[in-house]
Automatic annotation (TrEMBL):
Protein's recorded name: ATP synthase subunit delta
Species in which this protein is naturally found: Adhaeribacter terrigena
Keyword Phosphoprotein: no
InterPro entries: ATP_synth_OSCP/delta_N_sf, ATPase_OSCP/dsu
Keywords linked to the UniProt accession: ATP synthesis, Cell membrane, CF(1), Hydrogen ion transport, Ion transport, Membrane, Transport
Length: 185
């Protein structure tokens, strides 16, 4: 079974348990901390996947890193995963937890890419627009790509709306090249 599927199952179990115990938001914050640690520390990623490092040593490292920073529920969950020799899933489990949390709470993630950072007014307008279109609460992620020149690229799930100047220029260039090619015939 792939690590992603295993991570998804562990994340679902943790989410259900946290919800049952009324600790969903605290555990979500723990998962965000775990995800941040994974994303910012390559040595941590390698340690989780390294079969040479013994599981008790990995557990000691996890306790040293997260001890006192996460809830007792998350700490015990990390211990269970380590005892079952599944530390490698800790890399993808926070993202799987977040996906299932968003699904359970009807939250849609959208990514907006612009040439310059958005101000608060535009951020709110995009959030409201996407919320009206999807009927869901929106979690807007922002990216800046100066190569767009202007405009935006909005990605919601599998849908992408590209209203950037870069793409408009590319479409115009393609149209011009097509017409030039046709006129040569």
């Amino acid at each position: 079974m792939s690590d992603t599927r295993v991570a998804s199952r562990y994340a679902k179990s943790l989410l259900d348990l946290a919800q049952e115990k009324g600790m969903l938001e605290q555990v979500r914050q723990d998962m965000l901390l775990l995800d941040k640690t994974v994303q910012q520390n390559r040595d941590y990623q390698l340690m989780l996947k390294n079969p040479i490092i013994k599981h008790d040593k990995k557990l000691a490292i996890l306790k040293a890193i997260f001890g006192g920073k996460v809830t007792d529920m998350t700490s015990l969950f990390l211990e269970i995963i380590t005892r079952k020799n599944r530390e490698a899933v800790l890399e993808s489990m926070p993202a799987e937890f977040e996906k299932q949390y968003n699904l359970k709470n009807n939250i849609q993630t959208a990514t907006i890419t612009t040439a310059v950072p958005l101000d608060a007014r535009l951020r709110d307008e995009f959030s409201e627009l996407v919320a009206r279109k999807t009927g869901k609460t929106i979690q807007l992620a922002e990216k800046v790509d100066p190569a767009l020149i202007g405009g935006f690229v909005l990605t919601i799930g599998d849908t992408q709306i590209d209203d950037s100047i870069k793409s408009s220029l590319q479409r115009l260039r393609n149209k011009f090249n097509d017409q030039t090619y046709i006129s040569k015939l």
